[in-house]
Amino acid sequence: MKVIVVSGGVISGLGKGITTSSLGRLLKARGIPVTILKIDPYLNVDAGTMNPYQHGEVFVLDDGTEADLDLGNYERFLGQSLSGTHNLTTGKIYRAVIEKERRGDYLGNTVQIIPHVTGEIKRTIREVCQAAGADVILVEVGGTVGDIESMPFLEALRELSYELGEGHMAFVHTTLVPVVGPVGEAKTKPTQHSVRELRAIGIRPNLIIARGPTPLTADIKAKISLFCDVRPEAVISVPDQPVIYEVPLVLEAQGVGSILTRLLGLPERQPDFTAWKEFLANYRAAERTIEVAVVGKYTELRDAYLSHSEAFHHVQGHLGVEIRLQWYDSEDIPRNPALLGRLERSDAILVPGGFGARGVEGKIRSIAIARTKGIPYLGVCYGFQMAAVEFARNVLELPQANTTEVDSACPDPVVCLLEEQKGVNALGGTMRLGAQRVVLSPGSRVAEIYGKTEIWERHRHRYEINPEYLERFRKAGLVVTGRSVDGRVEVFEASDHPFFLGVQFHPEFLSRPESPHPLYLAFVRAALARKEVAHPVGAPSAVA
Ligand code: GLN
Q1: 422 C-alpha vs ligand 1 centroid, how far in Å?
Q2: Given this structure, which CATH class describes domain 282-419+462-534?
Q3: Ligand 1 nearest atom to the CA of residue 354, by list position
Q4: N or C: which end of the chain has fewer CB within 10 A?
C-alpha cells in the first residue's frame, strides 16, 4: 500500500479536494489503480444532517451514504464510483471505538486516543485501500493543520508512515500564498507557519501546493523551498483556474506526476490525458451562450448546488456551448416582479432539490413560467415534486394542492410521505437513499434521452408523488414515464411542451467530465434549439 496524504494550511476553502482529486487523476492517467479517502474531523457521523449553508451540498453515493461534497469531486475526477467507507469522520471512528469498548474488545484496557482511536483510523485506511483494489490511496485530511479536531488523524498518519517505512508515503501540504499591498507582493509567511505546525507533529511535507490568485515567481518558490525544507521543484504553484478541470494539467506541467511516482517507487509511465484535453479544448472553445436559471433557496452559497454546476460544466465541455448559470433565490421571486421578467427571458429553468416550506412558492411560480412559456424545464427531486404541485394547482384547478411536507393537512396532497417513512423520527440516514433501479416507458422522451429503458439513479427523499392523482395528471398532459421497480413515480414529462421533465432522483450526482449526464445534455440541447428558433445564427436579431 502506498499512501499520499493531502493536508491543508492557513485557511480552509483552498481547493484541497480539487488538489486531491487532481493528484489522483495524475496517477490514474499513468494506469495506476488509485482510490481516495476523505477524512472529515467533525463529530457528525455523516454529512446527511448538515445544513448546506454551512457545508455545501450533501453528495449521495450509490450505497446511499450522504457524504461530504468532496466525494463528488473524487468521483468526477477519477471517473470511479465510491462507497461510504471512503468518507471517514470523527463520528464514525468514535462510534466504532465505543462499540468495541462496550463489547469488551479492549480486554480491560483504558481506551485512549492513542493507540485506540489512531489504531482504528489506520485500520480503516488499510481496509479502504484493500477493498478498492488500489495500489495508491490518497487521504485528504479535512480542516486546517493546527485544529484540535484533526490531531488524532494526523497522528495516525504519522504513525502509519513510520510503520510502512521509507518510500511508501508522501505528504502533500496545500497552503495559501496571499498577494498583498500596492505592488502585489506574494507572502510566504503563512506557508512557513503552517509547515512549522505540521513539522511540530512529526510530519515533513514532500510537496507544497501553493494556492493563490497568480502564479508564483521562481524567487518565491525558492524562498518557500528554503524556509520549509522542501526541494525547489516540489514547490508547486496552482493559481486560480477558470475551471477546476484545468488543475490536473497545471500540476502535470510542473512535474508533479513524476515527483510522486519517484517518491513512492511507482512505475513512471507516459500519462494519457487525451480525452481530458479534448474536453478542456471544447470547453474553452465555446462560442454560443445560453442562460440557465437555477431557482433554489441556498443560492448564496454556490457549493450548495455544486453537482448541478459541475454537470453543466461537463455539458459545456461536450457541446462547446457556454452555459451561464443565473442563480435565483426562490424566496425573492414572489416579492420581486422584475425577477419574474428576467426569468421569462432565460433559455432554460432548473429547480433543484430542497426541503421544507421556505421558498416553495417562488419555485412554483418559476415552474409555471417554464410550463406556460415553453421554456425547457428540468425539475430535480423537490423541483419534480413542486412541478406536480404547480400542475395540480394551475392545470387541474386544485388551488390548495401541496406536498404534505409543507402543509400536512392540505386537501389535495399531490405529494405525500413514502409509506415506509411513516413512523421514522430520526433524521440521520433515514431517507430513501442511494442508487435505485428505474424503468422507463418505451417510446417516452426520457427513454429516448437515455437510449435505454432501465437505468440506475441516486435518490435522497422522504416524499413521493401521490398515485391517486396520476390519472388526472395524465389526462391533462403530465405523463408518468418512469417508475421504480416497486411502482413509485420516478419521472414525468409534459406531452405538449418542448422539454418539461421532472425526476425524483438526482442525475447531477452521476455526471462526469468524460461522460456528461444525458438529461443535462438533452436539457441544454432543448434550450439551444429554442434559442436557435428565436434568434437564428446570422439573423439580424441575433446581432442586436
Ligand atoms: N424534500 C423532498 C423529500 O424529502 C425532496 C428532497 C430533495 O429534494 N432531495 O422528498
Answers
A1: 15
A2: alpha beta
A3: 8
A4: C
